[in-house]
Design brief:
globular; alpha/beta; eleven-stranded mixed beta sheet
Amino acid sequence: MKKTTIELYMRLIIIFICLCCFSCKNKSTLENVVQDETQEKKVRLWNDAIGYTKYDWQLDSIYSRLGIKDSKNNMKWKAAICPHDAYKYSGRLYYESLKGINANTIILVGVAHFARNFDLQDKIIFGDFTHWESPYGDLKVSDLNSEIIEQLPQSSYIIHNEIYKTEHSIEGIVPFLHRKNKNLEIIPILVPYINYETIEGVSNNLSNVVSKILKEKNLEYGKDVAIVISNDAVHYGNEGFSSDLAPFGVDDKGIKKARALDMEIIEKCLVDEIGNEKVKKFTEYTVQNNDYKEYKWVWCGRYSVPFGVSFANKLNQALNNKPLSGTFLEYETSIDHDLIKVEDLGVETKTIANQNHWVAYTSIKFE
């Protein structure tokens, strides 16, 4: 009996020691995982100094001042063109442009304003950030971002974090999307100088990769994944720009002609059934025939728009065997409507808005 009791005690002690070791090992492993995740997290920090919101209460106040009564809807827009100017000037059009974008994963096609500074051209630009700082918390970059990069031909893209740190064309859109969907994930892409032929090739490569991934993961275009294209339309005037951007003059007649040309571009290139010829025509309107790095008509999205529309359309053809159709929603400028006050919210604006210096915006959806 005594020997049996001793053996029983010894077995219990061994079991206790094993449990402690197992528990400690699990705790150590868990701590390592958490530590590794912390080390790997790479956040693209908020950078704007031209009129966006860093804090949630700022954007909530702007919604209130714009009279926006947000509500959930069941729309499944596949793509949209959205402004990126300061909220003071174009805040309401952000909402109008994005209200039908309800997918949890958004591919953001942005302008690369500072491509010249980094000598970037002819390839789309990715970053390797895991998150973006947002007024509503750190916003996750989708895991699809790395999958797309892995499958794209290297001739089509470059990874360049530095340009993302200075670029604002996506930063203004993020808070509006994140405000209504806290589960949002993004895939940011910047488009630098790029000619029509390269747009065709790279957008084709990207649509092939993305369509393959969506099919494999059983994700629906419009419902699960959508595209938002960043753009400001014509920049017009003879003051505050690096050169005279007022070919029609700055009187009422000249401004009317400038607006009319913007609407002509929209109607001929971006609405109804989308096709290659419309994408090409857009580039013919906006960049010089003999030098695609030079403006012809000063749209900020002279590269992001044709690339984004071409990519969105080819993705729909690959997945649904039909082209997208664009629908014009709205057009306005920084001088044709009452502007809201934002300065008391700590939202800085540096640009002027008058007949000698104004910017236009358009909202277009694609289904």
